[in-house]
Amino acid sequence: MFPAAIAMKPSMMKFQSRRGSDGETSDSDYCEDIYDVSPMHGCTDAFTSAATAPKWSVPDQMIVDSTVQAPADPTYLNEWFLMMKSNEVKFHPVQSLNNQPQITGEMRGLLVRWLTHVCQTMQPRLLPETLFLAVNIVDRFLAVTPLGLDCLQLLGATALFIATKMEEVHPLCAEEIVSLCDEGQYTRGQLRMLERKVLSTLGFHLTVPTSILFLEHLAEAGQYDHLTSCLARHLLVTSLQDYVICQHAPSSLALAALNLAASLVNNTRMNTCPAVERCILDLQLVLMTMMDSLPLPDLLMMCYQQYHQ
């Protein structure tokens, strides 16, 4: 399921199993913080525009009730958004692979592709928020801790293990997570040991602003139709694999995805700041790749079937 190239060389962080009576491994490793996450400057004031009425003819099977319920307390909702916007610099690592001697952007892309496949094929299917949080945990940990290739999939599995506890009603257990990895590659004890190391390294800061959270807020506030939201979500999920695109601020990525999706579905475009325009240019490359394999009507139908709830 996961490319064999991930398990190639001895790691810089080794996980040698020393089982006690409870079956757990002891943790004698030390991870030194070697990288200070620098701020990512994104768009701060381009979130007030709303899309106009749809102009694209939507197939009957994709027509849903697009009525947007007004929030019970819009003041509280706005305060939540401003809090998340102010925190995104703190929890969005930039150039997280700069001090990784073995892991490249391509290897990170393979890991994210595997995580995406797991989240979308699990029964019941895992929430998109789980995937985005797991990738955020991976990037933040890699930004401060050197890691070897043979532990990269274990880090992804650990991040998914933690993310399901935060987002899912029924989180995955350690045995389920281990079974998703290459057969016999890792043990439950190694997973639990790395979980402790990741949580300690990140200071247990797990409520973080991701692009999918900004997307849900902006889509509702701007009263975007459901098909536009589905296409924007698919753009964000696909772009998670691209290390370059993930350097953009999550809020800018969310607004760029909505803007690009609205231009295709409704032929509308809003005024945005330069940071969002740069995101749109990068996301257009992702969209062109999608449309090389699927014509626009088929792509929209696939997005609707994939993300309609």
Q: With helices defined by DSSP (H or I, 4 residues minimum), what is the helix count?
A: 11
> CATH homologous superfamily name of the domain at 92-201?
Cyclin-like
What is the CATH C level class of the domain at 92-201, in words? Mainly Alpha
Instruction: Look up the CATH topology of the domain at 92-201.
Output: Cyclin A, domain 1
GO biological process, one term: cell division
Family: Belongs to the cyclin family. Cyclin AB subfamily.
InterPro entries: Cyclin, Cyclin-like_dom, Cyclin-like_sf, Cyclin_C-dom, Cyclin_N
GO cellular component, one term: cytoplasm
Give a structural overview.
- One of its GO terms (cellular component) is cyclin-dependent protein kinase holoenzyme complex.
- One of its GO terms (molecular function) is cyclin-dependent protein serine/threonine kinase regulator activity.
- This protein is mostly helical and 309 residues long.
- Among the domains are: 92-201, Cyclin-like (Cyclin A, domain 1, Orthogonal Bundle), CATH 1.10.472; 209-307, no CATH class.
- The protein is 51% helix and 0% strand.
- The chain is built from eleven helices and no strands.
- The chain has helices at 74-87, 105-121, 128-144, 152-167, 174-180, 188-201, 211-221, 226-239, 250-265, 274-293, 296-307.
- Helix 2 packs across helix 4 (152-167) and helix 4 (152-167) crosses helix 5 (174-180).
- The longest helix has 20 residues, at 274-293.
- Mean pLDDT is 76; it is low at 4-12 and 14-72.
